[in-house]
Specification:
about 230 residues; alpha/beta; Dihydrofolate Reductase, subunit A; two-stranded antiparallel ribbon; 5 helices; about 20% helix; about 25% strand; globular
């Protein structure tokens, strides 16, 4: 499990240093495009998001935050993240699962977009996003906005959030494509890295060079910090 809920009663918000774009050899992006989805994740200050298919912490306040942020919206996740909370859908949320076993290949277990166990299954994040765009709920699908709001014209639209795991986060935070917007991150106290830990693919410094802080508040639990980041136009 990596920064994501174990079940609906115990939900959570689900690193290696990224390159500074000013560094020699870094990509030059004049105007980064925002992807039609955001990220919701809990990240330890030493970059850990998962250990032994579970969260290496327990913060009830963050569990409530994850539920409040995602309720009524659609969630993209990898198969291991789906299995980490029992392979059962969380109430009042659509679940889009990304797995290598889905697609048109001869060894595929499921066809693209198949429905199983209350979730839709896809071979890639792009395929999941394309399906979500084509099947809006609550109005036309729109890009998530500040503090979880959409543009005024789509105020009631369902939003799309990526919630893990580590490989999915690495794919959507690759600067060769559009970057997620917003990033809804719960920073939790460092847990001490161990072999086999799942790490968030970028660190806070990388984030704060590409995103601005739209909202922040300290948690009641010691060491928790809830931050919403928005992509900086360039």
């Amino acid at each position: 499990m990596d920064g994501t809920p174990a079940d609906d009663a115990a939900e959570s918000g689900a690193a290696e240093t990224g390159a500074d774009p000013s560094d020699e050899g870094a990509r030059d992006h004049e105007a980064p495009e925002a992807a039609p989805y955001g990220i919701v994740v809990a990240v330890a200050r030493d970059g850990v998001i998962g250990r032994d298919d579970d969260l290496p912490w327990h913060h009830p306040e963050d569990l409530k935050h994850f539920k409040r942020t995602t309720l009524g919206h659609a969630l993209v996740m990898g198969r291991k993240t789906w299995e980490s909370f029992g392979a059962k859908p969380l109430p009042r949320r659509r679940h889009l699962i990304v797995s290598r076993s889905v697609g048109a290949d001869a060894d595929a277990v499921l066809p693209e977009g198949a429905e199983r166990d209350g979730a839709r299954w896809f071979g890639s994040v792009d395929a999941a996003v394309a399906w979500w765009r084509a099947h809006p709920v609550g109005g036309s699908a729109a890009r998530p906005g500040a503090n979880g709001a959409n543009d005024a014209s789509h105020a009631e639209a369902e939003r799309l959030f990526v919630i893990g795991g580590g490989q999915i986060f690495a794919q959507v935070l690759d600067e060769s494509g559009p970057l997620p917007d917003p990033l809804v991150i719960t920073w939790v106290p460092a847990v001490g890295r161990q072999d086999g830990d799942v790490l968030f693919p970028v660190d806070r410094d990388w984030i704060e060079k590409r995103y601005t802080t739209a909202a922040t508040r300290p948690g009641e639990d010691e060491g928790l910090e809830f931050v919403e980041y928005r992509l900086i136009p360039r």
